[in-house]
Amino acid sequence: MTVSGASEPPGGQPVLQIRGLRKDFGQRRVLEGLDMRLYQGQCLALLGPNGAGKTTTIRIVLGLVVATGGEISVFGKPLPKNLKRVKYRIGVVPQMDNLDPDLSVLENLLIYARYFRIRQKAARERAMELLSFFALHNRKDEIIQNLSGGQRRRLLLARALINRPKLLILDEPTIGLDPQARILIWERLEHLRKKGTTMLLTSHYMEEVARLATRVIIIDNGRAIARGRPDEMVDRLLGAEVMEFSGPAERLDRLEEALKGCNVTAERVRNRLYVYIKDGCRQLDEAASDFSVVVKRPATLEDLFLKLTGRKLRET
Amino acid sequence: MYQVWFRNLRVWLKHVRASLIGNLGQPFLFLLAMGYGLGRSVPEIEGLTYLQFIAPGLVASSVMYGAAFEATYGSYTRLSTQGTFEAILMTPVSIVELALGEILWGATKGLIGGVIMLATLPLFGVIPSIWSITLIPVLFAEGIIFSALGLVMTAVATNYDFFNYFTSLVITPLFLFSGIFFSLKAISSPLREALYLLPLSNVVELSRMFCYGTFHGNIGPELLNVAAFTLISSAAAVFLLKKRLIQ
């Protein structure tokens, strides 16, 4: 599969630049030649099945994993040489909750501020500001165990912002949350993005990506397999609409045969046929009346994702 | 490095009482049982009553226990279940600073126990000399040794049960055979020389001398031994923790 649609850069020096990133864990190759650029004010989403290499990429940027090959620079400074300097301006929301359970909500922020050598007075002001931004100000003396999943995630976000980062790294920031909690976090992140915070996001929620990301890279097996803007890449790579047909195998076979002359992509999964439509097609409309169950809907990022990375379960 | 140390201090201060009782209970009970109990029927050793003889060594042992336990059970909890190390490593704090901060914290915790024990010895009728103040750096170095050895164990541990090896095969034998309860001088060569290679024996010997201000012979070799163990154990702990946390 080829990488396509890498549109023109908005200019200026990239906040994050990765070239030919490779990583082997023993015999297992996790990343093979990943490239990406993230510019000021953008939100770049890395999409990919579990094990595609998203988290590994983030961990390499943070110096928690040592790359086998390739180049990374953050704010124009090559890593790992400038790691310590660069990390003063990075904020991270990790996939796994690693809030400090020995400390209260406010203390979590204040102790974390110390790791960035922020003065305690400034840290306290910033912490209170962030606690109200994330609707946690009534909980400042609470112990971590008493927080709900949504509150913990919000606190993780507040913690990631304590040093006013120029680059915010979000590794599945709303994983395991209910829709209300997720929407609140999205609103806050959108607010930050509009104010110019640059973000690197990984997620499995397509809605999250569609809403937050300005650029998307789909990664599979340690490689970028598609890039673009979330609002145009589905159209460009897949088509505007998708029709789902289900029925007996012979009828699906006949339909698939009939579609040969059309500008559509068809994908057969057991007793289902997905047809991604780029241009209108007469055969398709005729066929539709033959089938009792037909779904016609706009194609989404999820369709593109599944088309590119396959529908089989990973990590079996 | 200091920030990591401070974080642990902050947490410790929240439950300081339980923590101190846990660390000081054992050496005090030994002091009572062996010093008062057994001591009545034991003649003087090296010119000291049995209680006086064992008291400085028990101070050294409380430093060892405090440091070793903090750097195993405490550090391992921060490394594994709590993910504290990972959270810290996402910030500008480097892995070397993290490891050194943990070692220094374990040493500090051990030292706090040792100093409290030293300060309460007069209650047992044991009066330390003014030289005891110079013992503090020695006890801190001892704390670094056992904190670093504990962190070495943490870096290779896969679960808490792993620390049973450390306790049963390292800490308890050192407690019993480092000359706290009997004079190593009475043991015949070459076993005596072998026992004097152990880190705790040298600290126990130094503790007794500093505690009563009676110096016999050159203390250079003992100090050198402690210094060497401090450096080697710290280097090993930093190296292994880095290997564990940075893939």
Content of β-strand of chain A: 25-35%
Helix percentage of chain A: 25-40%
Overall pLDDT score of chain B: 90
Poorly predicted runs of chain B: none
Q: How much helix is in the residues of chain B? A: over 70%
Secondary structure tally, helices of chain A: 11
Give the integer mean of the pLDDT values of chain A.
87
Structural write-up:
The complex is a heterodimer of chains A (316) and B (247). The two termini of chain A are 23 Å apart. In chain A, helix 3 (105-115) packs across helix 4 (120-133). In chain A, a hairpin with a 2-residue loop joins strand 4 and strand 5. By secondary structure, chain A is α/β, with parallel strands linked by helices. Chain A folds into 2 domains: 16-234, P-loop containing nucleotide triphosphate hydrolases (Rossmann fold, 3-Layer(aba) Sandwich); 237-309, Alpha-Beta Plaits. Chain A contains 11 helices and 14 strands. In chain A, the strands form 3 sheets. Chain A has a 6-stranded mixed sheet, with helices on both faces. Chain A is 34% helix and 27% strand. Chain B is 74% helix and 0% strand. In chain B, helix 6 packs parallel to helix 10. The longest helix of chain B has 30 residues, at 50-79. Chain B is globular and about 60 Å long. The two termini of chain B are 21 Å apart. Classes of the chains: A alpha/beta (316), B mainly alpha (247).
